[in-house]
Amino acid sequence: MITRRSFLKLSGAVAASLSVASMFPDIATWAAGGKVEGKADFVRSFCEMCTSRCPIQAKVVDGKAVLVSGNPDWGATGGTLCARGVSGQSQLYDPQRIQKPLIRVGERGEGKWKEVSYEEAYDYIAKQMQGIKEKYGPEAMAFGCRKGPHMSYLYTFAKAYGSPNTHNHESTCPLARTVGLEVTFGTAGLGLDYGNCKYIVSLGRNYFEGINVAQVRGVMNCINKGGKLVSIDPRYSLTSAKAHEWLPIKPGTDLALVLALNHVFIRDGLYDKDFITKYTEGFEAVKASVTSYTPAWAEKETGIKAADIERIAKEMAAVKPKAILDWGWRTTFTPEEFELRRAIIIGNMLLGNLEVPGGSFFSKGPGFINGLVGKPVVQGIAGFKTPPFPKPAKPRVDGAGVKGHPMELAPAGDGIAQAVPESILTEKPYPIKGYFAYRYNPVVTMPQTNRVIEAMKKLDLLVVCDIYMSDTAMFADVVLPESTYLERDEGFNDYSGGVPAFTLRQQVVKPVYNTRAHWQIFKELSEKMGLGAYFPYTNIDDIRLTQMGGKQDLVKMGKEKGFVNFGMKPLFLRDKNSVAEFVKQFPDAQSLVNEQGYIDKYLTNLKTPSKKIELMSQVAQNVFGRGVPVYRPIQIAESGQQLFIQGKTGLHTNGHTHNVPWLHELMPENRLWMHPETASKLGVKTDDLVEMASTVGKQQVKAYITEGVRPDTVFCYMGFGRVSPGLKRAYKKGVNSNLMIPTSTVPVCGITLQTAGVTLKKV
Amino acid sequence: MATQKRYGMLYDSNKCIGCQACSTACRAENKVPDKVSRLQVWIEGPKGKYPDLITDFHRKSCVMCDSAPCVPVCPTGASYTTSDGVTLVNEKFCVGCKYCIAACPYQARFLNPETGAADKCTFCHETRVSRGQKPACVSICPTGALIFGDMNDSKSDISLALKSQRAVKPKEHLGLKPKVVTVPNWRGGDA
Asked: Which residues belong to any copy of the 4Fe-4S Mo/W bis-MGD-type domain (chain A) (predicted)?
């Protein structure tokens, strides 16, 4: 018999060794109450177990959701899905969800609540928010959430109230990449075409654990067609396990490696000269800046052999432009993060991989296509007409997008999340007194957990809208339960990538508990506060029809297929075959095509100051004196310390899924990965307790001894070690990575560091 | 006259990323109670000496032997093989004696705590395969690591894959002729 115990024993990489706790009811049985043999309905929708938002279909039997799988008509995923997506049904029927609106009756964080009606909850919130506005001004309320289609409802509510302080989670994730792309291209809307690529270098990008199904399939396609994957990561991830090469780089030195690759591309004339001449600005500055960054120099910094660096550069150049240096995700090891992302982007441009299959490409949303053709040929998502927002009296506390502020380049639409607890605690630049956290859990997902908790406790008002009693919700004054994505209808979501497309979220089953959809909650709450004019829709049909410009046929297509597309094939502006296809569909675009069969005017008409791709950025030069990336060695761990890094597992999403029954059962806790050398110095074996301490936190962790991490580095999967007793399964299980990380804000891009030096001792 | 079907499956461990989408979909599709599983993927590793490491992936489920030892030991006839080569359990006839569990060298069977009957992978025979669909695990797998189909049809995906792949039968020396075969990890050094 395959026991769970034997499974765990062998699954060092994924699972933890915890004896089976029988503290939760049998969700599988409960959920699948209907007979599968009966008549099944299929509802098309899109997932919300992570931010990839894969198109799905859910099977419904006798009014119960019984299997969530991928949407078979969506080509990029072809009906497939990951374990998190399939587990959506166990979340849906979980009795540990928040079932009714709650108002706090005990001390903050004590866990004493009164169940109330939505009316009572709205009245309470409206009164408190009105009080904060009168006493401190509307800017004293801050509003945070995950990025996604739901974000606009929170932001509209915030702006209508009069506060400029809105943010999402991007500054604790990929914001450096966003700012790097915007500085270089005038937009961050770019993608990578893994499936047609011949050589992928991943710098800590962990495709097979930070799962985006379409990208997983793309990378696997690349490998299957004989392409090469190189994983550069201090830890042997599951991506490293599938890669042709694993190079365990010294954490925090990726920039040295990339600069050395760029050095070889230029030194040996391997770069795409035509591309650089035609479409870019600042090559000479890049050339001058990388002269001294030889592979021999980089070997000393990174621990990767000079010969390997030389070889990888040459192998990439040999298959250019179908070669990708992945510009990555959440791997901020040093304050030089903006430099790293810029250097990676420059490397890609030296390979000339922009707008070709197997390289990088601009996202082709309706706006892009219509702009290209010069008239509206593709329907875009339209919005409602609302009154103008009141002008905020004060600038944002985080300075994002504020002219003249050091964080000027960080997009105001994303904001800088970690600035909010700082403003609460230091009252600088002015105090934040109220916080509205919508499906957002800063206590676990922001660095320096203890400081965030301190901040949450100091607030006059904390409102949390979520589906679980999260670690932030436990400190709230009011908790509003939202319906899960399987229980609510929603509007269209722009899902454009290679082609314009929208996905549609549809209700699979009626709400299991007394919960409501966000578009309803924000409308009702706003009406209570006299701000109803900013939410002028009446129901979901109204929202959808308005979004599709009144076109019923598009709404119908969305409901039936789960998405709307326009029969386009992916367009690469520097690929004559796809350009020819495009012109066949939109003959008005014929005049754009040059003698090579390209539409490359766009590449010299970008929204950058020079209108070209800026390898050297005058904007960056002005903001912090470095227009091209240069290397400055950074020491994060001190002598005697280990470098603590963290990462994603394919079984959980940030601070979101650890209490979801099926996912919890697959991975209930994490452990601290350490190399046998490190372990023998400490005298610890696997599952021994170790005390891990940084400048900001201390916790006991279970050791997992493995050759799969550098001897100077320790690693754990993020999102565990939960503090909310309301998360009955996940409570106090495993290591909270963010407890160890000091709050910081990296220059230019506003991202927070995700690493720290730690000392370890045996307990 | 069409030839008899003979269903088989290929598990390419090189394409498997251990994401557990298959085991979760199996749980949902087949209403498998918590704490028992018809299907798991074991991740074994990292193994080796830093930095020369490998991680192996193993599918653990019924391998649908042609000569299934679980069938003849069943005293009530609850354990049987369908005409298309799928070993199944009729839970109405199962008395929970566990002979079949003991007889299975692949440790693929367990007692279902809800029905009290022996339970295991069925290739989703009743709910999907008999309706012309692929088993849940095959249809959900993001990387295409699983190929399923009729091995008697020379043009089926599975037949074509078996011709071109270096698949091995688990515990082949036992002579049970399993119909779930594995492409071993080439990072293990044999490619």
From this structure: 40-96
